[in-house]
Amino acid sequence: MLGIKKLDLFILKSYLVPLVIIFFVTTFLLLMQFLWRYIDDLVGKGLELRIILELFFFAAMGLLQMSLPLAVLCSSIFAYGSMGDTNELIAIKSAGVSLSRIMLPLIVFNVFLMGFSFVYANNVLPYSNLRLWSLMFDVRNQRPEMNIKEGIFFDGIDQVRLKISSKNTETNMMYDMMIYDHRNNAGNTSVIIADSATMKVTDDKRYLVLTLYSGESYEDVIDRSSIDEYRKKRPFRQYSFDKQQVLFELEDYAFSRTNVELFKHNSQMQNVVQLDYMIDSLRLNYKGHNSRCFTQFFINNVYKAKANKDSVGVMVGLDTLYAGMSSEARLAVVTKALNSARTAESFLLSAVEPTISQEQGLNKFRIEWHKKFTLGFVCMIMFFVGAPFGALVRKGGFGVPVIVSFLFYLMYYVLTMIAEKSVKAATISAWVGMWYPIVIILIIGVYLTYLAVNDKGLPSLKPFVSQFMSKIIEKKHKKVSI
To answer: Would you give the distance in Å from CA 70 to the centre of its chain?
Structure first.
């Protein structure tokens, strides 16, 4: 028993050390990818180091759902591949220990890891997403000059609207600027046009200094002492300038944190209980709304005619009524019936689009609900792919594990993205879309585990490659002969 315990510790050490290293390396690489993606929203905002570190911390927490499965896959290949390369795996097997027993301590560890993954995905990940994207919202709105889009009126400054035709991101120079100043609460009575302009925020973050070049200012002269000022014609003032500075107060524009409660209704920021509540609530609301719409339509357009009884009290048949009509009345009845049918068809066709959009909205919450459970299962399945594969190839070092892990995880990631888009488009159900990539990886893991436990090598690809190459050579010879 003592030897078995030492063996378990040896296997755990061989697995945990690379797991920790690969996990942090993978998280760092994904964090750099996150930084590259949102670099335009961060550069030039004058953010404090505390804000940047907080942003990276919550981003790293959110990236764990990608880095953890990849680290499990790579470390399992590395651990069993290294033991096979150094003949340690053969020595353990020769002592009468089966491969399934060798995998047992890591299976137990990954069971605990699977439980941790669920707790993390259900509790930590929604919180980190909430903090991350609320902070990103604040960062994006920190510096108004960075958010000005070309050809679109910008309303990030209180009571001021401005528009530019183009800008140079390297020099922060903006061209063809038009400013509507509404700070006097008199409408569009003050307009400034400039060929170019620059913006900067003062060091105390209280004012925005706008430097204008080669422009003109137009302003209505208002006499506020007169009651009828806004009903009569006013004098107009115009002047040109080569350079002018305009100061906008930004006392409320200093970096402040938005209330995170405003973002908590997003599907990525809720746990399983909250998602269940939102799914049930939305489904009942959609069902009630659709039922009322359909009921109202059929009452007003389909079931308007009521059954009439004759004097004897016998129900009058439709065929009898139709036979007793004149030809003109029959034509009118048929025309009206056709119009009613076309109206019903048009209503039903138009009603399909809202139901599809409703299903797409529900699927966003369903996807997040399934993600709470898929993370743990992916980690376990990645172990059953990596461990037998490492035992089969028997290659040490990080070269083979990194390459193979990347290929396996890339396949899983592509399948997951395709499935997730299909679920969002409401073309497949959430259960099928979120679990069939895992089932495919599971089948591969079961097959590799079967080969490793029964000491069967990987199937050779040489016959397929040689057959493929021979066909290509044969085709080339045929073209040359022709």
So the answer is: 20
